[in-house]
Design goal:
The protein has about 45 residues and is an alpha+beta fold. It is built from 2 helices and 2 strands; from the N terminus they run ααββ.
Length: about 45
């Protein structure tokens, strides 16, 4: 998912990884978020 979104938003001037991390971090039921180089997003719920 991350790689698909990155490809579509490559022309914009913001870091998509930071945006996704910020949005997921704002959710109260998320404990840990890892975005790895392969484009996977690992989310650990509380």
């Amino acid at each position: 998912m991350y790689l698909i979104l990155l490809r579509q938003n490559i022309k914009k001037n913001y870091d998509l990884k930071d945006y996704i991390f910020k949005v997921l971090s704002s959710l109260k039921y998320i404990e840990k978020i890892d975005i790895v180089k392969a484009g996977y997003i690992n989310v650990i719920l509380k």
